[in-house]
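Why this split exists: single-chain examples teach little about how molecules sit against one another. For that reason, every record in the complexes split bundles all components of an assembly together and asks for one structure covering all of them. Below is a record exactly as it appears in the raw files.
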Amino acid sequence: EPEVTQTPSHQVTQMGQEVILRCVPISNHLYFYWYRQILGQKVEFLVSFYNNEISEKSEIFDDQFSVERPDGSNFTLKIRSTKLEDSAMYFCASSYRRTGGYSNQPQHFGDGTRLSIL
Amino acid sequence: DQQVKQNSPSLSVQEGRISILNCDYTNSMFDYFLWYKKYPAEGPTFLISISSIKDKNEDGRFTVFLNKSAKHLSLHIVPSQPGDSAVYFCAARGSSGNTPLVFGKGTRLSVIA
């Protein structure tokens, strides 16, 4: 069964450094998402992406964050200047269709990247 | 701001018996509800979903029930198996635009052999 893959599985970075988290969504999926889960807390939405642009973003997704789909397969999340509070599990997800209206399609998640900021 | 609530952080069930996981929501704009299962060091795995036009959806051992008037849904697992031991997340989203999923905090299910 096709799956979402994320690399690296664990990233350790010094505070203030830039980090790029990588994701390969399921190949025929059109909608892409990033979520994060701080230890002991809920999974929280960061951003959704469709047709090479951001569809929606949360308050967490400030100017330090950016997303990109540099080619036909990768989907990346960049944090420009990391802070201690960015330490979390970051999950990439994808879905085939717009998850709205009457065409309900679930989002499929990768196994996450554990980001540790020192 | 807990739009999706899973009030039981953990649940223990004997193998072969029924597991019932509960979820409440507050946002009446939610119209699609999902259950995900998560093992340690893995991402959430989609289990089953239900749209607001239904009150029940069944897939093998898993059944999701939706009570819109009570803003409540539940996941039933029958019979429970030791491999079902995981954290179960309830998630919901609205219908307008490409709305993101809103997750509950999860319930850790332990199925005892």
